[in-house]
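Team,

Forwarding the record for the chain on the shared tracking sheet. I've put the sequence and predicted structure together so nobody has to dig through attachments.
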Amino acid sequence: MNHYGEMHRLSKMVRPTHCLFTNIGVAHLEFLGSRDGILKAKCEMFDYAADDVKAFVNGDDDKLITLKDIARTFGMDPSRDVWADSVEKLGFDGVRCRIHTDAKNSFEAVIPLPGTHMVYNAMAGTCIGLSLGLSIDEIRSGIESLKPLPGRSNILHTEHYTLLDDC
């Protein structure tokens, strides 16, 4: 997505029931002008979304938090609907964290991919899983069995070197 109208057309084709926005970065500035432009273009997804669309946003992103009135939030801040704490880096073995699904319920998970940014992906998946009726055990199992796509966070060990393939 790097032009206005793309998400509008996609939304019209599929009438999404769930929308998830992980961040508003700077990757599409060349045609959208600013992060506000990127947010506006991404929000075109709601143009033809189902009437009861469930939306989820990274509440730690300064642009996405503006959608908090129409979306559930996830992030590191306990004021989010789903949040994480006790984040522990495990090097190339991944990241351990505790994900809270509300004020009373939480679970520990080991994300088998390196980088604390993966905690945000696990929280996003938790939001979607809960909305689809998955149990906490099913969500944890999904997180802990995560496999990287080719060229993304693949760790190759040799006799003398460890290579992180993340093109």
